[in-house]
Amino acid sequence: MDERSAFSDDATGMESDIHALSPERVRDVLEALDRQDGGEVRNLIAPLHTEDLAELINGLSPDERERLIEAIKFNFDDEVLPFLDPETADAVMEQLGTRRSAQAIAEMELDDALHILEDLDTEDQQEILKTIDPATRKELEAGLSYPEESAGRLMRRSMVFVPEFWTVGDAIDYLRRHPKLPEDFYVLYVINPQFRPVGILPLSTLMRHPRSARITDLMQKDLHCFTTTTDQEEVAYVFRKYGLVEAPVLGEEGRLVGTITVDDAVEVMREELEEDFLRSSGLTGQDLSRTVLASVKTRFPWLFVNVLTAMMAAAVIDLFDETIEHLVVLAVLMPIIASMGGNAGIQASTVTVRAIAMRRVDVRGAWRSVWKEVLIGGLNGLGIAAITGTGIYMIYGNPQIAMVFALAMILVMVMAGLAGAGLPMLMRRLGIDPAITSGVFLTMLTDIVGFLSFLGLATLLVVR
Question: N or C: which end of the chain has fewer CB within 10 A?
Answer without folding.
Answer: N
